[in-house]
Amino acid sequence: MKKICIVTGSRAEYGLLSSLMKLIQIDTELTLQIIATNMHLSPEFGYTYKEIEKDGFRIDKKVDMLISSDTEIATVKSVGLALIGFADAFNELKPDLLLVLGDRSEILAAVSAALIFKIPVAHIHGGEITEGAYDDAIRHSITKMSHLHFASTEEYRNRIIQLGEEPNRVFNVGAIGIDNIRNQKLLSKAKLEESIGFKLGKNCILVTFHPVTLEKNTSEAQIKNLLIALDSFSDQRIVFTMPNSDTDGSIIRQLINEFVENNQERSLAVTSLGNIRYLSILQFVIAVIGNSSSGIIEVPCFGIPSLNIGSRQRGRIKGLTVMDCDPEEVKIKEKIREILTPEFRKACRNNINPYEKTNTAENILSVIKKTDLKNIIQKRFHNLKYEKL
Fold first, then answer.
1. Is pTM beyond 0.70 here?
2. Shared domain check, 200 and 154
3. Average of per-residue pLDDT values in the chain
């Protein structure tokens, strides 16, 4: 039995991985191991490890790492704590494969520990570019410590090969989050409104805004500009999802809470919607605003506009439903008006999502099952100087 260990540190990442986790769980040739860490274990972020357990999964280990601060020194110390925790976890669980998604600091710690333990790593969503965040460097670092790669587009697959990875270990499978959208039963509007205690109405916007980690102290100014702009659209109802545990996230949470307190009749802030509620709400909002990767990858499947603010996602492939915007009050107002026009909204309904492929989770699982995990630790650098992609 191959032991497949999945590390998850955030609500969003777990939501993306959950369909694949279920496939591993029911496979008679595999054993699923789960390590929960970072935001899942924090009361500030809603103790979202409980959502994992509620879905019928057993968490094998919990790695506490989050220091109650969002400063740079706290973030670095959290990574150090995570390394210690993953050392103990891997020593006990002894997985045959570590399966991770994305580019967050806790995943960097997990993969760094796996490197020393000589545990093969399968990485989902490598090869992507987000120039405004240090996640970009973390993502490429994880690629160099990984042995199987599951990219979401052909361009990203080529970039992983450009980093020196062997082409026969790099697979374009599409974005796994789109798999969830196509295969999960979502909530009705009435059930969703009952769950969150808020009426969405006909003109509701979803807002998700995170710190831009390669910029110095810009979070406060940028979220203020966004909130001032939103205040101008008094006929729009607004649901905020709170930012993740990145440096400077607390000022964003504070200012969102103040906005909601002053606009209780038309706005709501939710610490964690969870996977089903998040996907369900996308059925009923007229636009998504912020700087989350979800606005670029998953939201287009619902045929609604996304306004991508600032540099956090700069460099990522975007479909026609996504409009970029500088993080300035006047520009944000202008672009909100533009994405809400009937013409733009109509165009969004007929878009093609560049991240969509069929059977993503099944294809990832098939590759894992066919791979001889005992003979992939030592890698050769694939040099592009001698051949074309």
1. yes
2. no
3. 94
User: At 153, phi and psi to the nearest 5?
Assistant: -145, 165
Beta carbons within 10 angstroms of residue 78's beta carbon:
22
Taking only the tens place, the pLDDT of each residue in 186-233 is 999 999 999 999 999 999 999 999 988 888 889 999 999 999 999 999
Q: Are residues 104 and 83 in the same domain?
A: yes
pLDDT digits (tens, 9 = 90+) for 115-124: 999 999 999 9
Alpha-carbon distances, residue 289 vs 6, 94, 114, 208, 308 (angstroms): 30, 42, 36, 6, 6
Same domain membership, residue 370 and residue 230? no
Distance CA 353, CA 346 (A): 15
Query: Counting Cβ atoms within 10 Å, is residue 84 exposed (0-12), middle (13-18) or buried (19+)?
Result: middle
CA distances from 95 to 98, 294, 367 (A): 7, 30, 17
Check the CA dihedral 50-146-361-133 and report its sign: positive
Count how many domains the chain has: 2
Looking at the fold, whether 224 and 328 belong to one and the same domain comes out as: yes
Q: What tokens does 83 get? A: 């390394």
pLDDT in tens, 108-142: 999 999 999 999 999 999 999 998 888 999 999 99
- Domain span at 224: 186-348
